[in-house]
């Protein structure tokens, strides 16, 4: 990755941190805007989705966009990636096109769950640990 780019490693880390921080800031800002009368839900959906997209794209600076896309569509991450990408689109459709606030909230929750499951796929045995925790809690 470092050989194919003109950016130094420290520059990559800085841009990763900037994009990731912007993603967190947008998500928090969207949650705060949820309480604004009338347009709060639209602002929440837009900022929350932009925050997740920014946080996801931040990793492109660490591993490069091509490698990122290859890893996203590996069989172990494919389902989480597809749910995540479709929930981005469906959130915005629900709030702007269909004008269904409940669906927008549902798709934001799906975004969160898909992003979490996707992120856990990068930590060895994390998904297994989460599954064991939930199955032990349910039984």
TrEMBL record:
This is Vesicle transport protein.
